[in-house]
Amino acid sequence: MRKSLGGVRTRFLQLISVTKTDLRGTFMDFDKIPEGHYDGEEPMVFHYRREERLKNAPKIVQDYYSGDFKVFRPGLLKALVSTRGNKLLFMSLVICFLVVIGNILLGPKQNSAVSAGIPLKLTSTAIEETIYSSLKVSAPEKKFKDIYNDGIMVSVHFKFLDADNQIVFDDKVSEKYTGKEIFLRTSHTDYDIFTVCAEVEMLDETLSLKSKVEKR
After folding, report:
1. Closest by CA position to 29, among listed 44, 12, 46
2. This prediction's pTM
3. Contact 34, 14 (CB under 8 A)
4. What's the DSSP call for residue 97?
5. Going by C-beta distance under 8 Å and a sequence separation of 6 or more, which residues neighbour residue 96?
6. Cα 11 vs. chain centroid, distance in angstroms?
7. Is residue 108 over pLDDT 90?
8. Are 180 and 140 in contact (CB under 8 A)?
9. In 3-state terms, what secondary structure has residue 54?
10. pLDDT at position 204
11. Cα separation of 214 and 184, whole Å?
């Protein structure tokens, strides 16, 4: 027990000596720090040389300690194509984006349709507190041009919907179609209307169109 306490005392005095030396200098010298030992035994000395350790370190570590390490900060586009995996991911995102845009621009629209070669388009406009809705029945395609010379009946059931998709007002309009462009119209005064639906009946067929109310 006394032998162990003597070793601790020796180690404590050595640390005090090293600390006093360190206070007189700028940095503490880690090259020769004696380890604790029992009285009568040869002390072990801890050697630390950073230069020796860095010789076998990776180049990125050597550059970091020497101050030559540069952080790579590419722009957003360069980062997206910096590796093969990033390039594939970036191309996938671009393709998905183009598909979505194509569907929006070229895909079917809720406010238009074609029935038996006749183009139909529903529009709704708000002027002050009055909503005007109109179904445009255009001239048919050339191959159907002579079919409608005798005329057919076109009936439209307009439904004005509020923000909760509840019917605020509805109206039915009919007109004879002979192959020339016609408009079937209705209106209603109510600023709470957001959408107009139209059920179009012609040639024993029923089509449903929908249009958002455009403010003017």
Report:
1. 46
2. 0.52
3. yes
4. H
5. none
6. 63
7. no
8. no
9. helix
10. 85
11. 18
